[in-house]
Amino acid sequence: MADRIGNCRIVGEIGSGGMAVVYKAVQEPLGRIVAIKALKPSIAMDSQFAQRFEREAHFMASLQHENILHVIDFVKDGHSMYIIMEYVEGIDLYDMLEHSPRLPVEVASIIALQVCRALDYAHFRGIIHRDIKPANVMISKKGEVKLMDFGIAKGDKLADLTETGTGLGTPSYMSPEQILGDKLDFRSDVFSIGIVLYQMITGEKPFVEDDSRTVMQKIRLDRYVSPRKANPHVPRQLERILARCMEKMPANRYPTTQALIDDLMEFLAPRVPMNYSARLVLYMRDVGILTDQEADAILAAGASRAPRSSPVDARLVRHVGMASAVFLALIVGAGVTIQAKAGRLAGDPDEFAAESGAPVVPERAGSLLVVVDPWAEVYIDGQHVATTPTARPISLPPGRHFLKLSNPYFQQVDREIRIRPGETERLELELPALTVEDAGIIEGDQQPHARGGP
Length: 454
Prior knowledge:
Layout: E1 4-5, E2 8-16, E3 20-27, E4 32-39, H1 48-62, E5 71-76, E6 81-86, E7 90-92, H2 93-99, H3 105-124, E8 127-128, E9 137-140, E10 145-147, E11 154-155, H4 176-180, H5 186-202, H6 215-221, H7 227-230, H8 236-245, H9 257-268, H10 276-286, H11 292-303, H12 322-332, H13 349-356, E12 366-373, E13 377-380, E14 383-387, E15 394-396, E16 399-406, E17 413-419, E18 424-430
Parallel strand pairs: 12-18
Antiparallel strand pairs: 1-2, 2-3, 3-4, 4-6, 5-6, 7-9, 8-11, 9-10, 12-15, 13-14, 13-16, 16-17
């Protein structure tokens, strides 16, 4: 191992693969920590592997996005090539799944969302990644998600480095068309991210080789096991997202990567009312990837960047649990419900009243946040006030109220709720399925009425 590469002093080896070795280094005279990916000496400089390595450097250098690992420099001499990249202190998704095989659905969806944002940026520039898998997704200790390794990526203006009829990638995460060696577009990456998301929420890959079929045959021909069968806690809304990602025919998948992003954001908005990076930090703390002290310091650093008009005591983040973390995120104004499609903060009583026709509520009103799977029309005290999913809490006067949740394809739910001044009550439930009698099949053979409330 060389002591120096360019203006970088090697500190030690991070990892090694079939084609390259990754080192940790200090870039001088800036004094910043970087990662250096070096082509192995055994790889000939005129080989196809070297061409892919150089192409990766050019692709990644052209993609400046917060969810893509940044390339700082590319060094090429007569003996080898080196990609100098930002150093991310954290854990890759492969190791995270080894540590904790099944992730909470909101944590998995946050990771998938950030990877999709990176892909959308690359797809817009005509670049297909073609090797989406857990080992190529990095989660930093600060809760940042980075997509790595564009070694077999393909641009629409560049020749492919694979021969006709062959495909590169990791078999378990390939799309059907990639296995067949067909021409690929962005929808191949959408299929692969669906496989990764499935694995995160179930702890299992959707397609696994057995005695009767290879994994590639199963991807092409077989239906995967429903994620709700593997994990009953998977919401139906997320199950539908997965189903659309992993359609066998590309034409049946999401029409754009942005459409997938929109659905993931809609799924997350009512479930994660805080900054997404903070939620990942809390999860890594809870499973022991981060210590309490590391998590406290990271969250405190985020709180210290709050505007002067919203001072935050760093002590708020000490020994923070989910409830206090949500409170902190609300104070800081980081993420909160602004990530809903409405694109604005919730809870303005006058604004809500103007839109819904509900009466203006007192300044010391409380609020109700309703999360329903799959969806429902929300009636309070006999008045229609919202249709889920919505990330906006419903402002209500303090006291007792009567809640009705209606969906023509599920049983109606009636609840009595009590609202306290200045507090937000959260109601989260799954609507019960209709019985045969409810569906009107026995008596009168009536069909359920259309969506829009009773």
